[in-house]
Amino acid sequence: MLVVILLGFLLAILSIPVHSLNSERVGNWLSIIPLGIFVWALTYLDRIILTGYVSETHQWVNSIGISLSFRLDGLSLFFVLLISGVGFFIYNYANAYLHHDSNKGKFFLYLSLFMTAMLGVVMSGNLIILFIFWELTSLSSYLLIGYYHNDEESRKSALMAMLVTVAGGLFMLAGIILLGIAAGTFDLNIILSTPNILANSGNSSLIAILIIIGAITKSAQFPFHFWLPNAMAAPAPVSAYLHSTTMVKAGIFLLARLSQVFTDGPIWQPLLVSIGGFTMVYGALMALTNTDMKKVLAYTTISALGIMVLLLGIGTTVSVQAAMVFLLAHALYKGTLFMVTGNVDHETGSRDLSLLSGLGKKMPYTFYASALASLSMAGVIPFFGFIAKEILYGAAFKSPLASGLIGVATFATGVMFTALAFEFGYKIFLGKQSETPKHPHEAPFSMLIGPVFLATLGLIGGVFSEQLAQPLLHHSSSQILNVDKVLQLGLWHGFTLIFGLSLLTLLFGFLLFRMRSVVVNFSDKYSLNSISGPEKAYQNSIPALLKAAKRQTEFFQSGILRNYIVIISMTLVALIWIMAFNGGGLSMLSFDGLTKLKWFEIVFVVLMLVGLANTLLTTSRLTAIVSLGMIGYGTAAIFLYYGGPDVAMTQFLIETLTIVLFVLVLNKLPKFVDVRKGLLIKIAFPAVAFGATMAIILMWVQSLQVVSPLKDYFAQNSYLLAKGKNVVNVILVDFRGLDTLGEISVLAIASIGIFTLIKVTQSKQ
User: I want to staple 37 with a disulfide (CB 3.0 to 4.6 A). Which of 67, 84, 295, 504 is the partner?
Assistant: First the structure.
């Protein structure tokens, strides 16, 4: 599995070189890799059916329990097949769609990076590794959505998608960390195999909420849904891949993967049912009031994702199985319809549903694909969408949580889906041909392979569902709740209530389709599609965020050196005191080691205080420099008295050199300004706090009983090994010679830099 991930990254690296060699067929050549991954995944099907799952672990950061762990079971295999299988068609589709684009190689780099990230998400066997790949999907999708970077709308849409999903990812990370702490491991194999692993955790509800926030931001659930319609600014291949089959399904995968961990908790099911149910209806309503083909598909995707979240929230065996069946049906027909939309837009120059009609004769293969996908979306027998709709209705009306309300909402959503399906399968291609910006004609062959195949597969999958889809879907759903009930797929179960609801869905859907112009006009009249709610809040928050960031930058990056020193010192003081109180506070201090003050110590301290006061109060820069020197010489005298002649000599030399340098540049300094008004007050507290903290640290260090073998080693061997009588010098020159050499090198480099600046300044003058 690691090889597959590395192969995906290699594909991304090779995208631009392959484009340089063969720009005409770059997508066709690169599509071999996702096809190979699809075939590789199929080889594991029988093994997973027999053993349950296959794992692979490589050591990485053992100290914190993070390993490159991968897990391939029925659920992850299902997603791998979707990602790689649809990916194969998207590569070929994009090659023709971006035929004249000189940056096509860069596009395939982004696309390959995204595909690899998604594969990493679904195959991760460690929560931390899952999060890393999760964030990589956000980054790569940002690049794909903003591919047309010269367009302001694309840039804004890409930023919106990234900010929303990354923000959700941070909540998810917090949940993952808390989950790992509560479970004692980040290994998914252990977490999923241990029943009631959070039974003794008091944070189970909080963890569930954090995980859900991360999932619903990625899967565009209300109130974080608004980024998905705006992401339609991306090229059609991006919309078809990211927003119908892969990225938005990452949140669904996460909820499905962790369902058995949280299902028994008090918050998981009610929260998912509420969010999913509302999003399901809201998304369908918004799709019904739009006329842009991409936005209609985007909102129906939001609604479909809401259905999946709802089904996972219901948490019964039937609902979980329905979620997997519906996920497959949605991937087949929605991927097709996105590519159909791309074909129509590419060849006619328009994607406005109200202006398009009669394109069937000019675009027969596109019409074929759209018709089949629309019939599956409407749930017409014998398409796979019909099977998905029937099992969906069965799960909704048998829900233990508000079955009546959920059933009615699901039925209403199905009616709206059917009405929109008639738009794509009937209105666009039949009737009188409309005038379009470009003369309509059929799309190139590479842009037809994907939609035609996926649409046909929706029909074949319905007819032969028991043979083709049932084994994989059963094992994928069994990994969610660990149930043994066999998933039953079939086209005919008799004249049941569910079958009657399916017929009513078609009838009411057709009637709603005939009335859709009234709905659109009503929406336009009352501005139902105007920017409001969560999206408005987002747009208002961005200027506020930028303003806050500007103020923060101006505060921390003021260009004034003393402000930097104050900020750094106060941060250090705060950290020290936090650590001190967490470790026992001031009780650790001991004053036993302090000696009584001697008269000469008092003299030194008084002289230093006089120098300090004179430095702060004088109006003469020369006097300030000399007074500052008094403080340095007083410090050196104290070092000398307490047996540190080397340190004292160093202090004397540095202080003398500093005074000399200040005096030399005295005439180059700006006019002396009286800064006593207000400034001394501002810096007095930080200075006193820092000094007091350092003094307390010294007293605390003095009270410690440090037993170090190095002290005895240096004392015994300084003369024997280095022939030096001064231990300090021996340590600096011999035992720590490389450290000293490094310090000297730093000083030398700084000196060269100063000399260069002086020479440059002189040459300019």
Answer: 84
In contact, 83 and 137? CB cutoff 8 Å: no
Contact 365, 446 (CB under 8 A): no
Long-range CB pairs of 405-408, under 8 A, 24+ apart, other chains included: 405/277, 406/273, 406/277, 406/310, 406/314
Taking the C-alpha atoms of residue 311 and residue 321, their distance in angstroms, rounded to an integer, is 9
The residue assigned the tokens 């900020």 is 567
Q: DSSP for 580-644?
A: HHHTTGGGG---TTPPPPPHHHHHHHHHHHHHHHHHHH-S-HHHHHHHHHHHHHHHHHHHHHTT-
CB neighbours of residue 574 within 10 Å? 12
The answer to whether 386 touches 418, Cβ cutoff 8 Å, is no
Mark 12-48 as b/e (b = at least 16 C-beta within 10 Å). Answer: bebbbebbeeebeebbebbbebbbebbeebeebeeeb
- For residue 500, count other CB atoms closer than 10 A to its CB: 11
Give tens-digit pLDDT for 596-640: 767 777 887 888 888 888 877 777 778 888 888 888 888 888 888
Contacts of 302 (CB under 8 A, 6+ apart): 220, 221, 225, 228, 229, 279, 282, 283, 286, 287
164 in Cβ contact with 538 (< 8 Å): yes
The CA distance from 542 to 654, in Å, is 50
Give the tens place of pLDDT for each residue, 636-673: 888 887 777 878 888 888 888 888 877 777 767 666 65
Sign of CA dihedral 379, 382, 387, 390: positive
Bridge partners of 68?
58
How does 717-727 read in b/e, with b if 16+ C-beta sit within 10 Å?
Answer: ebeeebebeeb
**What does the CA dihedral 132, 134, 137, 139 come to, rounded to 10 degrees?**
-60
Tokens at 578, concatenated: 């936090």
Is residue 133 within 8 A of residue 149, CB to CB? The reply is no
For 227, residues 6+ apart whose C-beta sits below 8 A from its C-beta are 157, 160, 161, 164, 165, 220
- Spatial CB neighbours of 203, under 8 Å, sequence gap ≥ 6: 178, 182
Bridge partners of 56?
A: 70
- Return d(Cα 509, Cα 416) in angstroms, integer: 6
Q: How far is 351 from 341, CA to CA, in rounded Å?
A: 7
pTM, 2 dp: 0.81
| Nearest-angstrom CA–CA distance, 334 and 424 | 11
Q: Tens of pLDDT along 238-271?
A: 988 987 777 889 999 999 999 988 988 889 999 9
